[in-house]
Amino acid sequence: MMTTDTSLLMTMSDIAGLAQVQRPVVSVWRSRSAGTDTPFPAPVSRQRGVDLFDADQVGSWLERTGRGNNREATADAAAYAVPDPSRGLDEFDEQTFRGVTALLALRAASDHALNTLTAAELVDLADEYDPDDDLLLREIEALGDTLPVLVAYVDSLVEAAFGPAPAFERMLTDRFKRNLAGEGDLTLSRAALDLMTETVAALRLTQPADSVLVDPTGSASDLLIAIHQGEVPVMTANVDSPTARLQRRRLMVHGIVRTELQVLPSGAFSVTGAAVHVAQYPSAARPTMTPEQILSDIEQSVLQMTDEQLAVVLAPASVLSDIGISRDAEQLRSTLLRSGRVRAIVRLPAGLLTGKPQQLQALWVLGGAHTAVALADRYAMVADLVATPLNEAAIDALVSDLAASLGSQRMVRAHAFRFARLVLTRSLLASRRSLVAGVSTVIPARDQPAAALAVSIDRLAALLHADLAVEAASEQATTSTVHELLSAGHLRYIPGNRIAAEDVIDDVIAGVTDADGIRLIGPAEVAATAQLGHRRIDRLRFAAKYLAGRVTEPGDVVFCTSPRPAAMVDAEGTSVVLFPARILRIEQADPNGLLDAVLAADIAALPPGHRRWRAWPVRQVALKQLVALGDALTSLRWEQKRARERLGQLDQLTDLLMAGVTAGTITLASDAPSKGTT
After folding, report:
1. Among candidates 514, 508, 515, 527, which has minimal Cα distance to 578?
2. Which pLDDT does position 611 carry in this prediction?
3. Fewer CB near the terminus (10 Å): N or C of the chain?
């Protein structure tokens, strides 16, 4: 029988979690209580430069002083603490972590406290529940002399966390208790888990009730825990890696019944009947997977899939949708597309990996090939949500699109897609661009039929006396990203100038000319919160002090990303752009359908928060229409300028009339003409 007492230690962050306050609050308590009758407990040891405090002392102090927002701090302290290394532990390392999770799994399986058993009885009990050493036996045996200390800790942890499952989850999320190299970088955000959960739930509704969840990686426990509902059978790979064994312990603690998926050394496996394969790549078991390895793993799933089976795969967009992968990886991706089983490709926004918030992810949905559709006419659903926050409404709409993508041709045509469009698979294979190129959920689609659009334009042109005539188009326009256009040489990127504040001349009086200084364009001017031309820099000072300084050329598009995307066309040129504003310059010798006004309008239409400017979609004009549209827009801008001038004159005339008549200095003729009413 184990009766060993164990002291539990806490960091300052652990104390903040226990007290349910922010971390700086604990520092304030510690400093301000130093000279009082109830000083903050002193640290009992220091490990790797971090002060450690006795959990019992901290819990008692919180309860005695009433600090924090947890009135059960003493009882809950074990849930935020770790055993004292001086009690037989060198440190809370990876082996200790595995051992504690194994004891938690054994505690869940046996459903009683473990400290009533001797060390030998504990090992026998572990052997009873894990005779084939699939998940916990070796981890418990490896604890050796530290077993009594950790058993006492596990029992305290379970009591404090109100059960083995909450205790297990706390072990996984606590940074101090977890030391699994590289795995933390693959942790999914709540939005990513919600998207995967809703997608799998929707796909399973199209299958028989006995459909199973399959994890061929043996390490996607976050996904399985989030997705699993009720009595859904789960199959996971039989690999013997520490990550796979941890997953099996986690499933046991949560009461999820798991069956073994035999995966051969080659990676091949077989699943019969209805199933949804769920995978995240790189996998937690192989966090350094290359694009070729990721696509090879997906290919193994595709090779064994029957028409009864579906798959949902989450992986970096650089692998699943973007350009720039190696030739071998490109061939593998093309092979998967040719199989006809890739039914949906979705590029997702940043922030879905908590450890790599800037890395873009993509989602593939795989199903049966369109056997009733000719090979040349097979298609995939393609969507680009890089600028769309994954809130509840967006996830619901996307899941609806994904579910529809698996239907028949008739069902697909009947569905009103919110984010996606259908693309012929042969077009994806032939394109040298991103698989989602040309799909934009940021710039509103022009859904009006050509005839209706022409009628609207003709009506407005007649009202405005504009000399415009339109007819049905014969050449299809395209859309590319800024990155693609830069790579192809159709656009140039020029950073803004860093100008010292003392060199900026503010509030320049109206009517100045270039002789009074060079016009400055910064984020305020681009966003139209400051009047263009009110800030300048002395021409000689700029030339002498900023030798590498750059000025704009006529037609340059000046843009900024914060607080929201904004852009303007510098029609005059010879302006100095202030960083963080920047310049996109169209290559006039080879514009490839780019027009400065369209580029600026597309940037201005982007939603707040879309700061990945290289991923911005840009519309391109059909080459035969480039000059005609440019001329028409120039004419309309001139009309807009005249209208603004006339509006200003009308405002001035209104003010003068009111001032003169009310002051009695002028009178209006009684027969003055009147036009309309307001």
Report:
1. 527
2. 78
3. C
